[in-house]
Amino acid sequence: MKLTGIPLLFLMILGRCNPTTVSSGERTSTDALTIRTGSSFGMCVGYCVKDYVLNGTSLDLTMISRSKTQTSPKTCQKTISQESWDSLKALADLAAFSKQPERLGCPDCADGGAEYIELQVGDQKHRVTFEYGQTIPGFESLVNELRSQRKAFDECP
Fold first, then answer.
1. 100: which residues sit within 8 A by CB, 6+ positions away?
2. pTM assigned to the model
3. Which element (helix H / strand E) includes 85?
4. What would you report as the CA-atom Rg of the chain, rounded to the nearest whole angstrom?
5. What is the three-class DSSP state of 145?
6. Which residues are paired to 125 by β-bridges?
7. What percent of the chain is modeled with pLDDT above 70?
8. What residue ranges define each of the domains in the chain, with the CATH number in brackets?
9. Which pLDDT band holds residue 42 (cuts at 50, 70, 90)?
10. Cβ(130)–Cβ(107) under 8 Å?
11. What pLDDT, in 10s, does the model give residues 140-155?
């Protein structure tokens, strides 16, 4: 009886060790990452506000008009590549991003337009709004990558 008990105990202990298992507390901070970005112009005709939400390989675009003749927003969706999403996740450091001020420069002053980027992981989020065409110091690569995604998906059909 003792001889069969020891191997069984040994197998039970080994069976509990699984190096590929990651508990929910050990997941990386980008597992639940949501990125919001967009642009707006105060004095324009047509769809002057474009909001993008990136969550995994899903990219949602909402276009909002400030015109009285185009009152209903347009919403559409597309899929981005896993490589693009992985690249964005690598650039999205919420801890460092949260140290940025919420407003840089004078967004949309003199109808120059505004851009924003918001990073969210769980309940923690931070949004930075900045002048259209400018950047966020230290996050130039993230700004450029998001601009590239926005340019590739500029309009809803």
1. 126, 128, 136, 137, 138, 139
2. 0.78
3. helix 82-91
4. 22
5. helix
6. 120
7. 79
8. 33-152 (3.30.1560)
9. confident
10. yes
11. 999 999 999 999 999 9
Residue in 87, 101, 100 with CA at minimum distance from that of residue 146: 87
Strand 114-121 to strand 33-40: parallel, antiparallel, or no bridges (unpaired)?
antiparallel
CA distance 45 to 8: 75
Q: What angle do CA 83, 88, 94 make, to 5 degrees?
A: 150
Residue with tokens 């400030």: 66
35 contacts 146 by C-beta, under 8 angstroms: yes
* Residues 94 and 126 sit within 8 Å (Cβ to Cβ): yes
Calpha distance 110→72 (Å, rounded): 26
Q: What are the DSSP E strand ranges found in 10-144?
A: 33-40, 47-55, 58-65, 74-79, 103-104, 114-121, 124-131
SS3 47: strand
Report yes or no: 36 and 118 within 8 Å, Cβ to Cβ: yes
